[in-house]
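BUG: 3D viewer hangs when loading the predicted structure for this chain

Environment: internal workstation, default settings.
Expected: structure renders.
Actual: progress bar stalls at 90%.

Input used:
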Amino acid sequence: EVQLQASGGGEVQPGGSLRLSCAASGFAFSDYTMSWFRQAPGEKPEWVSSIGRAGGAGIYADSVKGRFTTSRDNAKNTLYLQMDSLKPDDTAVYYCRVSRTGIDYWGQGTQVTVSS
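Structure tokens produced before the viewer hung:
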């Protein structure tokens, strides 16, 4: 059974930082591209970033480029999202996702709130 467990969210002031983690199990983590999405209240899910199987440089939505960094540790089956220079518009529930055999699997999400 594919499981994705996101954690690390919380409340932070504008300009602050958070690091999200997504622990994966039930599939060969190192064989798949992993992605982060977010969903603000009343909005559709928004793609944030993706990272390839071997790691390296990720790709990012324009809204987070230069502020967020995604990485992965295949030995630990864990995906990360380092979020710096956070803005109130970054407030959302953040999800990790893997697409496997034509099916999208989502973690349960972790809330990020940026507020003064």
